[in-house]
Amino acid sequence: MTAPVFVADQLDAVGAEFVLDGPEGRHAVSVKRLRPGEAVVLTDGRGRFTEGVVKAAEGKDRLVVAELTAVREEPEEGPRITVVQALPKGDRGELAVETMTEVGVDAIVPWAAARCVTQWKGERGAKALGKWRATAREAGKQSRRVRFPDVADAATSRQVASLLADADFAAVLHESGDAPLATAELPTEGDIVLVVGPEGGVSPDELALFTAAGARPYRLGRSVLRTSTAGTAATALLLGRTGRWD
User: Fold this and answer.
1) DSSP string computed for the chain
2) Which residues neighbour 35 within 8 Å (Cβ) at sequence distance 6 or greater?
3) How far is CA 65 from the centre of its chain?
4) Domain named Ribosomal RNA small subunit methyltransferase E PUA-like: which ranges (predicted)?
5) 19, 118, 236, 239: which has the fewest C-beta neighbours closer than 10 Å?
6) Alpha carbon distance 20, 61 (integer Å)
7) Residue 48 near residue 11 (C-beta atoms within 8 A)
8) Contact 71, 48 (CB under 8 A)
9) What backbone torsions phi and psi does residue 155 show, to the nearest 5 degrees?
10) What's the rounded Cα separation, in Å, for the pair 157 and 10?
11) For the purposes of burial, counting CB atoms within 10 Å of the CB of 25, is it exposed (0-12), middle (13-18) or buried (19 or more)?
12) How many other CB atoms sit within 10 Å of the CB of residue 98?
């Protein structure tokens, strides 16, 4: 089993020993109950990491890590997979972010689709985006990643179209798709962008806009998945097909 992962924002400050405190230290000491001699990984969540061994657990929120290796960087894998996720209702957006992160998505773009019941505006929108980013961070640690997915600012449909136009492969998951995603011709490098619509579906105007940008509608299977699970299923399919899960 791989060592548990904790976030250390200032990896450049890591020397012979490193003190993990604050919320991360509390999680390590009081929740994980790590003890001297156990291995840990410290990461900045952007691919840079170091490995070490617990020297001491002090109080409720202070972990001293020693025997640290040189800071290394995990290269980005390709092709890079971005999921444009329409805003689901309630906490299902956080569920989508959590499971896509666990599977291995590289980036998530929240999308305020026309048929979304939920709309991010003002302070409420900023709070919701913060929750998505916190979820990606925690799920990245839980799944023992050292490169967490980027969670972008919420995008409009025109911004999504621009993203699709720049992709090496662009797809809209839609029940009208006449081709299965499982047999689509995929690039071996570059950017793959998938659009997951809201519960009410992608509107005809949005589909036309995305098609004009170079995206094609594809179906996943015979059943119609909920918006909070479709991105996870599609990401898993592509990770297997592109060889990233070899």
Assistant:
1) -PPPEEE-S-GGG--S-EEE-HHHHHIIIIIS---TT-EEEEE-SBSEEEEEEEEEEETTTEEEEESPPPPEEPPPPSSEEEEEEE--STTHHHHHHHHHHHHT-SEEEEE--TT-S----HHHHHHHHHHHHHHHHHHHHHTT-SBPPEEPPPB-HHHHHHHHHT-SEEEEE-TT-SEEGGG----SSSEEEEEE--TT---HHHHHHHHHTT-EEEE-SSSPPPHHHHHHHHHHHHHHHTTTT-
2) 54, 57
3) 28
4) 20-65
5) 19
6) 8
7) yes
8) yes
9) -110, 150
10) 36
11) buried
12) 21
